[in-house]
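Give me the fold.
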Amino acid sequence: MSRRSFPATGWKNDRHNLKISVEDRDEFFNRNWKTVILYLVNGQKRRTAIANIAKALFWDGTCRELINTEIRSS
């Protein structure tokens, strides 16, 4: 298993997602993967979350979001 990382910024709202740019999706994600593990850092708080990327909407450009309830500002 390979580990690749890039910084992403979330914002506080009622949703639990991170939107990924087309460029980052194409560079850092693989269509053969079913899920990705997210390492979330907010100050001293650290959490992990698993997000599903095995969905057509993630790859066709209309919904490039990583979704999990752990993705939030707290």
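The chain has a mean pLDDT of 82.
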